[in-house]
Amino acid sequence: MENRNSYQILYRSLFLWLAVGFSSCGKNDLERFTGKEGLKLRKEAPCILDDITLREIQCDRIKYTISVPEKCPESGCGVIFDVHGRTMNAKVQNNNTGLRELANPAGYIVVQPSAPNKDWKKSYYPFLTKFIQGFLAGWSVDLNKIHITGFSQGAVISWHMACELGDVFASIAPISYAGGTCYGTGTEPQISILYHHGEQDLFSRFPDALDTSNRVIESLALVEQKRYKSPDNSYERIWYQNTFGTKFQTIFHKFTNSLIFGKGHCFPNPPVRNNYGCRQSPDYIWGEEVLKFFQQTSKDKQSS
Fold it and tell me: What is this structure's pTM?
């Protein structure tokens, strides 16, 4: 009983230390998470912080909603960063991905940032990078299972983080944005990608999506494995892989949203119906596709 009480005190103290460190973000605060003390803490810190399973912390004007599973595997939880698009926030993003409800039981911490004024300016990218590095150093997590997904502006960030932190992420899942600026430059990382894009997308044009896809395929020397076209011709999946075990899957669709603008700029089958969801109901759910892909593309599952 004394040991249990001692661990509860440790858990609460650790959470307070993490929350204070991240919320203040003063000078050297993040160094504590990325330096030797942070790495030591990551190895010793428990994955679960008492019974606190959902909390919000703020750093550099960005608010982070963090959902923690009730139980983690022996190796520690994986982490999924789930990033919203413009005019959205963490709550709206989760209404469309449902990743808290899907990924927590599967052993993943879900981190959903909210941009100031619901708009991801490029000046916020370094703050996101700093936070991700600090978060992973400060928590006891499975570093083989770190992933990021995002919609629209969040997809821009997903592509950016693949290039910026290529040694951190096992895979990414951008939806509704053509990007991947480092692909074709010789600096592209061996990161698996699930890429979802609408043929009628008016905010991120489909020809740009095809160009992005072709650059990824060529630069990573990917070979097509199989393809599937839905019976109603509303979407097509293509699977690729290279000799390193890096996977690339595209889902290109003809769905549209309920807004006047954007058209194909939408989530298929969101758990909460809203204006960001596609009007049609295909035979797959985006959040489930993301989780399944991330589970299949952890670093320890890739061939050498």
Answer: 0.85
